[in-house]
Amino acid sequence: MDLSCGWNSAAAADQEEIRRGPWTVEEDAVLAGHVAAHGEGRWNEVARAAGLRRTGKSCRLRWLNYLRPDVRRGDFSPQEQLLILELHFRWGNRWSKIAQHMPGRTDNEIKNYWRTRVQKHAKQLGVDVASARFRDVMRHLWMPRLVERIHAAAAAAAATTTEHATPVDVCHSPDPSTTTSCTAGTSSSTSTSMSVPHNHHLTAMTTSVAEAAADWSGSEQCGSASGGISDDMFEGSWSELLARAYGDDGADSSLLPDMHMAAETGEGWWSFEDIWSQQQY
DNA sequence: AAAACTCTCAACCGCAGGTGG
DNA sequence: ACCACCTGCGGTTGAGAGTTT
Prior knowledge:
Shape: elongated
GO molecular function, one term: DNA-binding transcription factor activity
InterPro entries: EOBI/EOBII-like_plant, Homeodomain-like_sf, Myb_dom, SANT/Myb
Structural class: mainly alpha
Order of helices and strands: HHHHHHHHHHH
Subcellular location: Nucleus
Pfam family, one: Myb_DNA-binding
Domain Myb-like: 15-67, 68-118
């Protein structure tokens, strides 16, 4: 198998040349096999011992972002998107820290999501992604919108379940007090009804957020939340929104702005005018 | 059909912090 | 205390896929 792939002609003249660029299937197999046999860590040694002409850093990155068995791929669910926004509110560009609370997701993926999706739309709106204005947009429009989607998905799934009496791997219990495995930061039934795609991951996520909330003490209050500190801010956003999304009292649609989606985007974004008309909260 | 453009994401880079000799 | 090496993090880049013109 030709591993030079032609992007570094000097490599042909020097067998010890460090390879760069995309990993081949063969390299992946070698690295995965070596890690399986010897475990993670000591990446420079891994690269040498496995005979990979890669840097230790490259091996580490490839393992963490791609080869790790628990790594998840594919689009972020609305729940995950909501969690990213929430955690970014708290920690800013601390991607690795955010990733710690999103099982199976890598800091690289989250960072890419933020840059390609969030920053793109901030740019479309003509506001700085770090500005208070954009944070307000996220808190009052984007996040509720995501919750709306989560609720819609949950409702649709619930309807399907009822209609077909299909067993679904959910944490939902007729009695919320029995949903021990799904208990998030709040003791209510806010983490029930995960009968939407990735439900088991949401369970993990809500638990992670609860843990994060426990960690989160004394840090600065951010955004334009209700004026409480730490836990209050947390309660007023993630937990409350999820409660509204999943609560058995039905979602309170008054929470959600009456947004008219920007027709040109067709994917749930709203116009500049819509946003500013909703700024009177 | 094809050129131009946009978007996504894997991978690289530089830097900082930790550790051991 | 200093140095060398390793690891982890956040920012950036570029190839390729997808979309538009």
